[in-house]
């Protein structure tokens, strides 16, 4: 029986040959990664190569863009997948010289590359020709230098916070030729779900243009992981990306990447415990999303918001018994989990089953309070529309994509853990609007409950002498030098991926976090065009973002 930890084999030789034939002389070298074949291309051929891979080979999901610097070059990696089969992957590697780090932009091919390339420019210093708006995205425009470049001076003070000589109190002005008005939404407002600033241009009462302004919560998470050891020092960090309810899901993203890179096989029993805890986290996350969304769209605090927090607290109680923490769990370990289920086990099973037994009635009550509510329907149906092709173009995943009918879930499509051995369904909706995304999350709560119940059945019957919670992992992990991998899991908000490049030491040479919230948030402008400010608030809430994960 598969435990889901074996490295996925690379494409069959004939498939790789077909890709090589498609790219032809534009592929100047090979740079295979653990998860995918890699092709090195010239900076001037990026758009031609990516267009062919999209249109001829069907790679319609640009899941991540990684930038880094070596001693002799800069490098951009485009991690490409297929929504229909995310195990069919290819990496396009674009080297650029140190004295001229310039390559073509992938934005004309994949709209999601806009923000990813801006981040690469901001942190590493690579420039992208034909990019529609190449400027900093996480750091202030006045920041000096690129923090992930080799020549960055970490001791240099950054004292300029505003454009030089600009007046921060510039008076309002009116253009007699225009009917538009500029409006700041956030960054400090409950409806922005964190420190998010949305620059909004109104034409009358309708939205003409918006621009999400992020970076207020950038905490250098990738840099900190690059300074930590694989075995012990990195695992506490993932809890702090989506710090609300997805801790164990975040931990699994890192665990999956390093375990596949180091060829560590996780015991079957530990995989079931991981699956149990992760689905409880998913329920807690969706409960929070539901309650805050109801608060956003029609001010429902006394019932829906408090009810969802009540039920979320019940899940947090179970997770606290399992992990010892309520928020920053740090329960997963490389090769398994920290410890077995709490004793007495019967009490833990009873507590969890009591929650599951009461859940159907609570979901029915939420439907009475929310989805059948006329005000809620008016605010959500046919607002924030995101068509399937647009969702794919922006790299959307999770309930945001599934609410637009995109049938994509890594638990099923790129199996890991114990998911492939359990009975459950992927929830999709064709509404493409704010209402569909809410229904998706509510139905996913029920599917997660099915998974948790099956895990409980297995754990209750598991032989006592076979409860192995950790693999035999070397005290010091040192993957082969220049080994590279991109691995992802289905977090509560979508595809959470990790790219790791080993430099032969016990710390990563490069550690890149692919945040589902980062990609999903890019689609907000498409969802809000021509709508009203209240619709913008509803659309933003329906994305269920956490700025700690957006900014990292």
Broad shape: globular
Helix- and strand-based class? alpha+beta
Q: Estimate percent helicity.
A: 25-40%
Report low-confidence residues grouped into runs of 5 or more: 1-10
- Tell me the number of strands: 17
For the CA atoms, what is the radius of gyration? 23 Å
Q: Count helical runs.
A: 17
Distance between the termini: 36 Å
Let me know the largest β-sheet: 5 strands, mixed
The fraction of residues assigned to DSSP E strands is 15-25%
Oligomer: single chain
Widest sheet: strand order? 1-2-5-4-3
Arithmetic mean of pLDDT: 88
Task: Summarize the helices and strands and which ones pair or pack.
Elements (H helix, E strand, L loop, with lengths): L12 H11 L3 E4 L7 E4 L4 H10 L5 E9 L4 E9 L2 E12 L5 E3 L8 H11 L3 E3 L50 E6 L2 E2 L4 E2 L1 E7 L2 E8 L7 H6 L20 H15 L6 H31 L2 H23 L8 E2 L2 E2 L7 H27 L2 H7 L7 H6 L4 H5 L7 H4 L20 H28 L22 E8 L2 E9 L5 E7 L1 H7 L1 H5 L4 H11 L3 H5 L1
Parallel strand pairs: 2-5, 6-7
Antiparallel strand pairs: 1-2, 3-4, 4-5, 8-11, 9-10, 11-12, 13-14, 15-16, 16-17
């Amino acid at each position: 029986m598969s435990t889901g930890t074996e490295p996925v084999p690379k494409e069959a030789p004939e498939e790789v040959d077909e890709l090589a034939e498609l790219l032809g002389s534009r592929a100047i070298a090979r740079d295979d990664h653990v998860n995918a074949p890699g092709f090195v291309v010239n900076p001037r051929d990026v758009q031609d190569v990516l267009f062919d891979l999209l249109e001829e080979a069907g790679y319609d999901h640009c899941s991540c863009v990684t930038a880094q610097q070596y001693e002799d070059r800069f490098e951009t990696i485009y991690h490409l997948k297929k929504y229909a089969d995310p195990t069919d992957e290819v990496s396009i590697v674009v080297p650029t010289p140190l004295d001229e780090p310039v390559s073509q932009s992938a934005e004309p091919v994949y709209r999601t590359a806009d923000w990813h390339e801006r981040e690469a420019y901001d942190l590493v210093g690579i420039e992208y020709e034909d990019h529609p708006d190449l400027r900093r995205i996480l750091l202030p425009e006045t920041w000096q230098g690129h923090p992930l470049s080799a020549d960055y001076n970490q001791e240099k003070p950054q004292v300029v916070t505003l454009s030089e000589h600009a007046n921060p109190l510039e008076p309002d002005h009116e253009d007699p030729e225009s009917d538009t008005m500029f409006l700041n939404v956030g960054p400090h407002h409950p409806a922005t779900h964190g420190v998010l600033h949305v620059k909004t241009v109104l034409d009358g009462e309708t939205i003409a243009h918006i621009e999400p302004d992020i970076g207020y919560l950038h905490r250098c998470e990738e840099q900190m992981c690059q300074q930590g050891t694989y075995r012990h020092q990195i695992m506490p960090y993932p809890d702090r990306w989506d710090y609300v309810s997805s801790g164990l899901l975040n931990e699994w993203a890192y665990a999956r990447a390093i375990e596949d890179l180091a060829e560590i096989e996780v015991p079957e029993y530990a995989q079931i415990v991981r699956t149990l805890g992760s689905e409880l986290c998913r329920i807690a996350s969706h409960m929070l999303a539901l309650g805050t969304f109801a608060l956003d769209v029609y001010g429902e605090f006394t019932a829906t918001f408090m009810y969802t927090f009540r039920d979320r607290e019940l899940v947090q109680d179970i997770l606290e018994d399992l992990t010892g923490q309520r928020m920053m769990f740090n329960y997963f370990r490389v090769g398994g989990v920290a410890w077995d289920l709490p004793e007495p086990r019967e009490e833990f099973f009873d507590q969890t089953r009591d929650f599951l037994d009461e859940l159907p009635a609570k979901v029915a009550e939420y439907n009475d309070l929310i989805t059948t509510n006329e005000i809620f329907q008016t605010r959500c149906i046919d607002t924030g529309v995101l068509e399937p092709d647009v969702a794919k173009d922006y790299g959307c995943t999770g309930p945001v994509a599934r609410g637009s009918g995109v049938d994509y879930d890594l638990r099923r499509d790129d199996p890991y853990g114990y998911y492939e051995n359990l009975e459950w369904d992927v929830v999709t909706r064709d509404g493409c609007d704010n209402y569909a995304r809410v229904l998706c999350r509510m139905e996913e709560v029920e599917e997660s409950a099915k998974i948790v119940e099956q895990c409980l059945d297995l754990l209750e019957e598991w032989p006592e002498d076979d409860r192995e919670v950790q693999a035999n992992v070397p005290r010091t992990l040192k993957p082969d030098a220049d080994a590279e991998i991109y691995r992802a899991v289905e977090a509560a908000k979508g595809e959470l991926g990790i790219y790791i490049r080993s430099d032969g030491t016990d710390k990563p040479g490069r550690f890149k976090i692919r945040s589902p919230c980062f990609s999903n948030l890019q689609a907000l402008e498409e969802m809000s065009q021509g709508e009203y400010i209240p619709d913008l608030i509803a659309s933003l809430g329906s994305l269920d973002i956490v700025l700690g994960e957006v900014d990292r």
